[in-house]
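Please review the protein record below. Let me know how this chain folds according to its tokens.
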Amino acid sequence: MTIKWGILGAGRIAKKFAADFKVVTEGDIIAVGSRSKDRSNQFANEFGIANAYSSYEEMLKNENIDVVYVATPHNFHLEHAQLCLHAGKSVLCEKPVTVNSSEFDILQKLAKEKNLFFMEAIWTYYLPAIIQAMQWIKEGKIGKVKQVQVSFGFRGDMDKKERLANPNLAGGALLDIGIYGIAIAELVFDKEVEKIQAIATFSETGIDASNSIQLQYKNGGMAQISSSLVAELKNEAIIYGDKGRIEIPQFWMAKKAILVNDNETLEFKDEAPQMGYNHEADAVNNLIKNEKAESPVIPLVKSKKILSLMDKVREQIGLKYPFEA
């Protein structure tokens, strides 16, 4: 059985997903939908996709589509995932799956009512380097994990009309890249958060240009997470235990993990040419074939928790989007 995919949105992230999909063995992208017919046709031609549509609604009428990858800006995720679910299509939705946890509740309920697979595309969790790092932790290579330090920052296009700086498109550092740091902390500690402290600086458009978050977990673990759209940060995750550490350069798209402890230094390298979106696509294919409603790697409860944490961060820093009630 080959799982048939549609891609909703034909932008930058959709292209990265489609490029990596070339090595996916049990799936086939059969359709792409965009609001622009020219853009949809160009995308289909570039990636050898049979069907190109000039509206999302038209694409969703294709009865052969099993699952849709939603790759539109954050603020549209609720609307577009709802369209897919109402059309009877399973959904892999780009992160953040919704802007806030209240929106997520709507989608989670709808997916359950429709008995459809639904997952947030936190592709980082499926990367071999991240899996190796978690295996080292499980094996006790760094002892008990005490602290996680994460930084992700770059000088982005802060033009008022562009996505990153546009509050109407749910722009800002937290939702765009800060979520990756929170996701790593959640993967490592997987416990209840006891305390949150957050500060931020703001752009002229009113979005968070940079932020710093501290999480304290009930098991004593701590995470320091920095993200920025106005400065190049170190762009790494370091996981510290009482017997060593694990360094993960460019952790969100990790190709390497380095273990350092008192006894050894180990380095894992992922030599595959793909960025790694193929791993989550393979996982989705397998889950749908086995009639699963959600992923055990990114369960819906995990997505809800990450969104709830970001809700609390936004409350602390005073960030609310114009379209939020």
